[in-house]
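Complex 375.
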Amino acid sequence: MNREDTIDTTRRVLDLIAVKNLECAPSPQRLSSSMFVEAERFERDRELFARTPHVVAYGSEIKRGHYLTRTVADVPVLLVRDEDDILRAFLNACAHRGACVAHGAGEAHRFKCSYHAWCYDQTGKLIARPGAEHFDGIDEATLGLKPLPISEMKGLVTIGLQAGVEVDGHLDSVAPALAYPFENYEHLETREFPVAANWKLVVDVNFEGYHFPFLHKQSLHPFALGNASFDLFGRHCRWAFPMRSIEELRDLPEDQWPDCFDGTVVYFLFPSCVLVQGAATSQMIRIDPGSHPGEARVHFSYMLTGPANEEERALHAQGAQFANDLLRGEDFVAAAECQQGFERGRDSIVLGRNEPLLQHIHRVWDEAIGMVLKS
Ligand code: FES
Ligand SMILES: [Fe+2]
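Predicted structure with FE2/S2 (inorganic) cluster bound:
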């Protein structure tokens, strides 16, 4: 959010607080809950993940000469930045028999498979292997790591999970609204865990404040308000919900308002990346389908927007724990309960006018897979 955007959003939110409202959809919407449980829909979802670009990391998580591994919709991915700042993505699968050639993250100029020690350079080229004479007649040039489409725009890394996925324009529609210096962000921590709910439910919990006074009565509600604004950017979207302290700006001239929105700004980056922007922190919550319709896998990265000393990092670690507890102890518990409801016969659901982004997100998912399931 640039300053102009921040001022505009602050104005809108203050007006909403004054009239005790939020920005709404034109009408409520009824949806079939089969999208969360049916095997056919799950298969279509997985196909969508295979053919659509995904935002998977902040560029600053991978410094020059470093690498990072990710599992994205079950696909093992290796991201490597060379000394010339060229970032590449590969399928993290050895050309010999398919094992991973790297684990975790760190600094590395060579990637040696732990199974039979085939070794690759930062461009994915096979450069050494024991017993090469036993592979006579096989062209060594065909034994490199398999490259994946990759694009780094404004400090966010977008990849495709197979050749031919067009990644370059993926964020174009939302780019002006993503005015953050992501390239300066510093990594604090990463967590990965499963959730016993369909991946779409795990995305949904991040995009409405209707539940704040109830589900988050003791945690978020004492600080935050549900008088939120929302904006659509093609398939992507964002909402901004204020902290209660935003009321203090009401009597200040706008040119004295801070550059940063006094609240949380949450972006949905199609198809399942959630970016949570706070004053000093940024969270990337990536949500993938799990092994069946009732399971999701979550990747949670917590970043600081600038350098921090040890004491500050320790304080931010408490913030990361708070965010983690809020998600895993409250939101994802509710998502898992919804999943149980759908699996036991709750066959349709309704989205209120006060849940406009859920309406948008479900619409773009349905359009993307060519399957609109209204009930
Ligand atoms: S599977 Fe990698 S060296 Fe054999
Ligand atoms: Fe929540």
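The chain has a mean pLDDT of 96.
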